[in-house]
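BUG: 3D viewer hangs when loading the predicted structure for this chain

Environment: internal workstation, default settings.
Expected: structure renders.
Actual: progress bar stalls at 90%.

Input used:
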Amino acid sequence: MKSLIAALLMCFLMTGNVLAQPIGEAETLASQAKEQFKAKDFEVAAKLFMVAYAKSHAPAMIYNAARAYEEAGKKADAIAMFRMYISLSKDEAGIADAKERIAKMEAPKPVEPPKPVVVQAVAPKPVIVPKLPVVPGSNQ
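Structure tokens produced before the viewer hung:
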């Protein structure tokens, strides 16, 4: 019986180490992604967050990738990542934030009214009419 418990314990410990390794890698990748985000290299950050998600299965990594794509101006990618986050997360506040961000990105941009054209009126130049000489005996 002792050998069976020892074998089960050994399997558990080995499995624990195998599971801990990807999580440690995910934390390292997430840290690298955060540094890239701070350096404003948003696309690299997004990709690193997604690799971290593949190792950890933590929905927060998908949210972070979505934010990075949003900052990079990649709306379609950001919206897709936020939708994936919404489908996988249980964090109500995060889900609400993701939905709000999607709504802002999908909202049509307001059309600015055309700027009024300013026309300056130019007064005509005065016409100088020479005075005609008065001729004596004329009917003027």
